[in-house]
Design a protein that fits this description.
With 339 residues, this protein is an alpha+beta fold. Helix content is 42%, strand content 32%. The protein is built from 11 helices and 12 strands. It has helices at 13-24, 140-146, 178-188, 194-223, 231-246, 254-261, 265-276, 280-298, 303-309, 315-326, 330-338, and strands at 2-8, 27-30, 34-41, 44-54, 57-66, 70-89, 92-96, 103-105, 109-125, 131-139, 160-163, 167-175. Strands 1, 2, 3, 4, 5, 6, 7, 8, 9, 10, 11 and 12 form a 12-stranded mixed beta sheet that branches. The protein starts with a strand and ends with a helix.
């Protein structure tokens, strides 16, 4: 079996490909939007097409044609990103350091992960069968911008969960649905060029992320067993809700909230969903949006002032969250309801 060892110190996908080019001697053609990385070796050929959709959001299309099995050991320092990978053809198997779980990939399988810290993984690729992979990469800052508040405590650790002083890794292995497959094929066969192509690919990439998060959330709802709650536990959960909504400009973290009411994180998350029918951050999101709606209807405030009042430092993030909730931007909602 052939081996490749890669060590990355950079955070962005494009910078990591440049590092890989230097370490392997591959050809790397960098363009303003799309870059192509090609490596030809006796063990086979591989091609990466990297498309920058916007800062912090990129697509990677990988193709492998191997004459013998290949093992790639990859190490990335100070990594922080969400990744969603779809296996289109071929077979391979990955494993993260400090996790005993192997992750087999074959057509129709996908893997989503969120990692922070020093990440090391080993991937073994099969020979004599073309391998095609589509990966969506979103850095942590962009992911937090586009992720709805109600999904911020979504659990991604059904397949693997690693917590050490060096790394936090959550990942879920799942099946690719027909709806996902349609979006994948639309990406692979994009009919547009230039800026329209970027816009189209971005919309399809975010559609795949939304479909995957909904799949994970559905899995969590159906697989999470009910936990036994004593009357004291329910009292603590109501206390937690009061604390959470007491200062929506500076709400406590999940860990801090659990500590304040004397519960562990797991019981707080599961119990909150059982008692209130939503997640901790889902409750906060709903309350913030209701407060924002009332302010827009009754107060002569600018949108940026409303955003700050309900705890959003970024007005554009507030506007996106408000539109998801009510179907109109804050500005349009104010105009329609105040004349």
């Amino acid at each position: 079996m052939a081996d490749i060892a890669l060590n990355f110190s950079k955070k962005t996908f494009s910078e990591r490909l440049t590092e890989a080019q230097h370490q392997t001697g591959a050809k790397y053609q960098a363009g303003p939007v799309e870059s192509v990385y090609t490596l030809a070796q006796p063990f086979g050929n591989l091609t990466y097409r990297h498309i920058r959709l916007r800062d912090g959001l990129a697509l990677l299309m990988s193709q492998w044609h191997l004459q013998e099995p290949l093992r790639v050991v990859s190490e990335a320092q100070n990594y922080a990103a969400f990744e969603l990978s779809f296996c289109i053809t071929g077979q391979f198997q990955g494993q993260f350091e400090r996790s005993s779980t192997a992750l087999p990939a074959s057509p129709g399988r996908n893997f989503s992960s969120f990692a922070q810290g020093d990440v090391k993984s080993t991937t073994e690729y099969a020979a004599h069968c073309p391998i095609s992979i589509l990966t969506i990469n979103i850095d942590s800052a962009r992911f937090c911008d586009i992720l709805p508040d109600c999904l911020q405590d979504l659990h991604l650790g059904q397949s693997i969960e690693v917590h050490t002083t060096q790394v936090k890794m959550l990942g879920t292995l799942g099946w690719t649905t027909p709806t996902m497959l349609t979006a994948i094929q639309q990406i692979l066969n994009c009919p547009y060029e230039g800026e329209i192509k970027k816009l189209y690919l971005e919309s399809k990439a975010l559609e795949l992320v939304a479909l995957k998060l909904e799949q994970v959330q559905q899995l969590e709802r159906t697989s999470a067993p009910k936990i036994r709650l004593k009357s004291d536990d329910i009292t603590r959960l109501y206390q937690a809700k009061d604390i959470l909504l007491r200062d929506i400009e500076r709400p406590p973290s999940l860990t801090a909230l659990a500590r304040q009411v004397g519960m562990n994180d797991f019981k707080l998350k599961r119990g909150f969903r059982q008692v209130f029918g939503t997640t901790v951050f889902g409750c906060l999101y709903q309350y913030r949006m209701e407060q924002a709606r009332q302010l827009l209807e009754t107060q002569n405030l600018r949108v940026v002032q409303v955003a700050q009042t309900v705890g959003y430092a970024n007005p554009s993030q507030f506007s996106a969250a408000f539109k998801r909730r009510f179907g109109h931007s804050p500005k349009d909602y104010k105009r329609l309801n105040r004349g």
